[in-house]
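Chapter summary example: a protein plus zinc ion.
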Amino acid sequence: MTGKSHVTIGTITYASLWAHPLGALGAPTLADTRSILALPVALTLVLLGSLLPDLDHPEGRLANERFLGLPLLKPLSWLISAIFGHRGATHSLLALAGIVALGELPFLPWAWAHLGLLVGWGYAFHLLADGLTKSGVPLLWPLDLRFGFPPLRGLRFTTGTWREGLVVAFLSVACLANASRAFVD
Ligand SMILES: [Zn+2]
């Protein structure tokens, strides 16, 4: 999927489940606070996580993001892309577990903030979303197996096509409908 779709999916699912948890599935919160002031920070972390897997794509959005006027992540992106290729290691459950662990392991001084769960939220939804496309995702990397939904490749769509837009639009409406229940309950 495109960077725009990933950002939309990551942030809208987070905001929706932050506003109204769906059964046991609620959004993790920054430092366990439900303060509205923490929400923009949490959303920024989710947004970062939603772009992070495509750091293996040097022409991707995050790789070309400029910090202090310089594309500082570009060399790292080239390196990851050269070693693992696009949609390789960064699109695996191992990478997701590593990202979450970097933020959540109890002995880390920043574990209280739950950065790992927030970045991990965006990251996990990125993997799920890419799983809907024809290329699928190598969830069990380093095993050379690709997963997708529906399992039949022909029923999935190609990145950047109108069907991707339709899926994002449908999901956005569902998320808004869920969030609106917060005002009813
Ligand atoms: Zn991707």
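Key point: The chain has six helices and no strands.
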